[in-house]
């Protein structure tokens, strides 16, 4: 029964990732076409991944890198953190909450 739930949550993760992917594509397109360069705030920030296994961190880093507008620069194993570059980091709380809610949460559902 547990295996069945993991399969269901894996397909849910794929749906959520595709949603995040399409949303990020539209946001990057909007930024490039309509937002002046002076109003875009690129930034490197640290994202906490404590409590995640190495496999979960690997999946999360690939999802972040595949999503337009963000890229995982480094994994700091000592601090349990990822160093992420974001094209528009004007709202840090919203950006980090989006990663947690959409990607991290759905990854952890199907891996545990």
For the record, the count of structural domains works out to: 1
Low-confidence parts, pLDDT < 50 over ≥5 residues? Answer: none
Based on CA atoms alone, the radius of gyration comes out at: 15 Å
Distance between the termini: 13 Å
Q: Which structural category do the helix and sheet elements fall into?
A: alpha+beta
Concise summary:
It contains three helices and three strands; from the N terminus they run H-E-H-E-E-H.
Question: Could you characterize what this model shows?
Answer:
The protein is of the alpha+beta class and 112 residues long. The chain has one domain. 59% of the residues lie in helices and 17% in strands. It has three helices and three strands. It has a three-stranded antiparallel β-sheet, with helices on one face. Strand 2 and strand 3 form a beta hairpin. The chain is globular and about 50 Å long.
Keywords:
single chain; 112 residues; alpha+beta; three-stranded antiparallel β-sheet; 3 helices; 3 strands; 59% helix; globular
Q: How are the SSEs ordered, and which strands pair?
A:
Elements: H1 2-34, E1 43-48, H2 54-66, E2 70-76, E3 81-86, H3 92-111
Helix pairs in contact: 1-3, 2-3
């Amino acid at each position: 029964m547990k295996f069945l739930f993991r399969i269901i949550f894996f397909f849910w993760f794929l749906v959520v990732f595709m949603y995040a992917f399409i949303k990020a594509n539209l946001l990057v397109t909007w930024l490039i076409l309509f937002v002046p360069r002076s109003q875009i705030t690129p930034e490197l920030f640290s994202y906490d991944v404590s409590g995640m296994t190495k496999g979960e961190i690997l999946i999360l880093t690939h999802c972040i890198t595949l999503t337009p507008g963000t890229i995982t620069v480094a994994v700091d194993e000592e601090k349990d953190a990822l160093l992420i570059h974001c094209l528009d980091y004007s709202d840090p709380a919203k950006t980090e909450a989006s990663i947690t809610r959409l990607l991290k949460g759905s990854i952890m559902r199907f891996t545990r």
